[in-house]
Structures are given as C-alpha cells and as structure tokens.
Amino acid sequence: MLEITNLHATVGEREILKGLTLSVKAGEVHAIMGPNGAGKSTLAHVLAGREGYEVTKGSAHFEGRDLLDMEPHERAAAGLFLGFQYPVEIPGVSNLLFLRTAMNAQRKLRGEAEISGAEFMKKVKAESATLGLDMDMLKRGVNVGFSGGEKKRNEAFQLGMLEPKFALLDETDSGLDIDALRIVSEGINRFRSAERAVLLITHYQRLLDHVRPDVVHVLAKGRIVESGGPELALRLEAQGYEGLAA
Amino acid sequence: MSALPTRKDEAWRYSDMAAVAALWPPQPARLISVPAGEARADVLRVTEGGIHDLRVELGAGARLNLALLVQSASYARVALVAHLKAGASLDFGGVLLGAGAVVQEIVTDIRHDEPDAESRQRVRVVIDERAVGTYLGRIAVARDAQRTDAAQSARALVLKRTATANLKPELEIYADDVKCAHGCTVGELDKAGLFYLQSRGVPRPEAEALLTRAFVADAFAGLEDAAAREALEAETARWLEARA
Ligand SMILES: Nc1ncnc2c1ncn2[C@@H]1O[C@H](COP(=O)(O)OP(=O)(O)OP(=O)(O)O)[C@@H](O)[C@H]1O
Ligand SMILES: [Mg+2]
Q1: Do A162 and B195 count as a contact with CB atoms less than 8 A apart?
Q2: Which DSSP letter does residue B235 get?
Q3: N or C: which terminus of chain A has fewer CB atoms within 10 Å of its end residue's CB?
C-alpha cells in the first residue's frame, strides 16, 4: 500500500532522511520508534507533502501512485491521513467548519456528493462522544484552548470522521491520559481492517500493548536501521537505543 | 473650502495624491448622530473610489455599533471623526480589502470629550498584489474625560509581499484615569495552519480563503445584527473567490 524506497530528504540545507526504505501492506500495522531528532516527523511531513521538505532522491508510492507528485490535499483525498505530533491551532475557524470543509473537499476531488448537514452532525456526535470532546469544544476554533491531550484526542476524532485508508500517526499517544490512551487505541483497532493500514510513530510500549503491531522499525539518523516483530519494541524498552547498528 | 492636502500632512502621508487632487474638494461629511440614551447600528459598504468623510456624534449614554467594509477598485479613503459625550459607547469594526494596485485608507479620530465613554475599534486590512492598505487611528482623550475606556486593535494580513500595509496608532491623552489598550500587527497567513488544512484535504487557495475569512471576521464580531454580519462575511468571501 505504501512503498518508500531509498528516500532522501532535506529540510533547509540539512539532509534528514538518508536512504529510508519501508513497505507497508494493506491490513498491516507498523510502528516506528527511534531517538529524538532521528527524522520520524520529517518522514511524516514528507509523506504528507509539507512545504520546505525537499526530496532529493528515492521514491514514495501510495497504492501505486507517485505520492511525491501529488499536492498535499490530493494525498488526503487519496486516503492518506497524518496525525500531527503538534496539532495546529487555527483561531476563528471552528473545528466543525474545519472538518466539514475538509470532508467535502475530499469528496469533491473523489467525485462524490457532499455530506448533508444532518449526516455530518450525526457522525460528529457518534465519533466525538467516545473521545470526550463535547459540542462546546467543537464549536471553538480548531484546537484553540485545547490541552495537549485534548489536541491529540482531536486528531483521533478527525481520523474517525475522515475515514482514510492509511493512518500515519505521529506520537498521537503522547500526552494522552491513561483512559484516553485506551480510548484512542480502541479507535485505532476499530480502524484496522484488511483494506487499511496504520503507521504508528511512538516512543512508548504502552501504546503497542493496546495496538499490537505486525512490524516494529527503528529509525535512527534518517534510516530504518532495524525491523522486527513486537518483541523488538520490548527489547528497546529494556535496553534503549544505544548499541543499535547506526 | 479647505486647501488640497499634501504628503506632509501626517493624515495624508500614504495617500494616492494624484487621485486626491482629482477628487478634491470632497463631499461634505456624512453625519451619523445618535441622541442621548439611544442606540443605533450602521453598516457602511464602500465599493466606489472616493474620499468619504464621516462625522459621528454620540450624545450622553448613546451607543453606536458601526461596521465598515471597504473594497474599491480605485483610491478610497474613509475618514471618520467621532465625538463621544459622557458615558457614550462606540463599537467600530472596519475592514479593508485591496488587490491590484489600489490605495485604500481608513482614518479614524475618536474624541473622548467627556468622562466615562467607551470606544472599541477593530480594523482588519487584507492586501494582495501591489495594493496599499492604510489605517491611521487617533484617539484623543480630553482633560476631564476621566475613566475613558478606549481599545484599538489593528491587524494587517499581507497576502503577497509586494503589497504594503501602514498601521499607525496615535494617542493623545490629557486625562489621568484612562484605560487605553492598543495593538498593531502586520503578518502573513500562518503556514502551519495552511498545511494543517491542506493535509486534511483542503486545496491551497481554499485554505487561504478560509484563514483570511477568519482573520476578517474578527472585525465584525461586535456587530449584534447576525444577518448584517453574515452579509459582510459573504461579501468578503466573494472578494476572496474572485481573486482565487
Ligand atoms: N524546519 C527545520 N529546519 C531545520 N532543521 C529541522 C527542521 N525541522 C526538523 N529539523 C531537524 O531535523 C531533525 C529531525 O527532526 P524530526 O522532527 O523529524 O525528529 P523526530 O524523529 O520526529 O524526533 P522526536 O522524537 O523528538 O519527535 C532534527 O535534528 C531537527 O532539529
Ligand atoms: Mg517527531
């Protein structure tokens, strides 16, 4: 579903990704762990198409399409969802307007009909209730006045609303309290299906206790330096990143 | 008849002097007068170039809610002089939308002549291409206008770096017990916000329009008449669509 081959990317003048190769098939859940500054968020931003992240070598394909040739909004409409490590605040644009604009923009690009107001609100109520985001919060500006954990819940809420094919979640678990972690994990597990895939960027085993990954990768210095099963995460938890092949 | 101003006059420093000369002398000021104790709301839309002078007179305890939208294709200047009597209240929301090479100005002169009056000003300037958007905001508080409460917030959004924003507050305060808050900022659209929207499926031009609408909406937030507010917002949206 997602095929990344020998990806090199620079931010500013600095090369951050240095030959990263990764393949995620439909139905799979992969986890990426790795030290601070290794390039995990850079990978997420490159895949989502953020300005200023320049790919100098290599390729990335999503369901056979050249991802790097697509605009950010086209990637979203194709089914790629990025859960931000640092969700952005947008004063003056309510969460509801933001989501409805996004949903309809995606539908339009896919040649589908707009969602009706009633259908949209029904879905909002269903998805927000479990995440503890109430209507007052959703009527506020996007993430404005949200706590760190609430912002991450909002990312999970958007994932539920937008129903992408591929969820790339950059530390969505960081900042969540114990109950929220369980709830968000349940959401990810519900999202799992034979047609979809998940790439979790995380620092913590506790997320992987709830969402069992098929493959765990270690990203260090801009490359995948080791891959394995869930036991790799447990080993990292015990031993840290020191002594890994760099 | 007053003499043709020059660039040396502080209030005309950023004006399009050729256009001013062609328009001189301006029409007499339009008067908006609210008698003591009464309340009014007014919406002004300026779509034609020209020099538009406004004179606002608020009696004791009078309230005025004034919204102004300027979006002309040729030089436009809206100059407002307001006199506030004891306990009067003025809420002014002004928006200026400029594209092409147009020069547009909002000039306010709020005079707190007597005690206990309140003024709230929110001005939002959106400029694109080579447009020039100017806001000159003077607040004058007379010696015995104690307990004046004046707030002024001016923000400009520069959509292209070739556009020019001039925001100049000017405070003249002769009373000692006065609250006077003011702030001026000139900025561009938030890159992080734009990317967040795009990453959720919103094309870049629509994302820009959405953020710009949010920026402008601030100015009209004081307008109690929801229908009037929505009409101004819709007008802004149309302007943004036309440039997309
Ligand atoms: N805009 C930027 N300009 C310059 N350097 C940047 C920029 N963004 C990221 N970097 C650098 O790129 C490197 C990788 O950053 P990245 O955010 O991808 O790390 P990460 O693996 O996600 O780390 P963390 O676990 O702390 O989230 C870091 O050294 C960072 O300082
Ligand atoms: Mg990161």
Answers
A1: no
A2: H
A3: C
